[in-house]
Structure formats: C-alpha cells, structure tokens
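A protein record pairs a chain with a discrete description of its three-dimensional fold. The shape at a given residue is found from the number at the same position. Here is what such a record looks like in full:
>
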Amino acid sequence: MEKALISIGYDELSRLIEEQGEAELSCQFCENKYNFSKNELEELLRQASDRKKCR
C-alpha cells in the first residue's frame, strides 16, 4: 500500500497530507484496511521526492 501512495506522485501526496492529514486505503483483494498517519505520509512524501529527483 505504501508503493500505491508513493505512485500517486509528490504533488498529490502533498495535497493529501495538507487537506486530510491521514489516509485509509482498502485492498481490493483481501479487503483489509490500511491506515497511514500524517508522520507516515510525510515519510512517503520524502520517498516520492527522492523518486522525483531521479527522473
């Protein structure tokens, strides 16, 4: 699920943090729900930023 959040890109992830401060994703296969705190989202944003620099 972390990779899915990173894949939405830096700008969208940044907007998600700013507007909602957290995220809940549901797996369409197992139907489990995954919650991400603001701190976890900010770490993913750093990873997305690193990916953006590599391109």
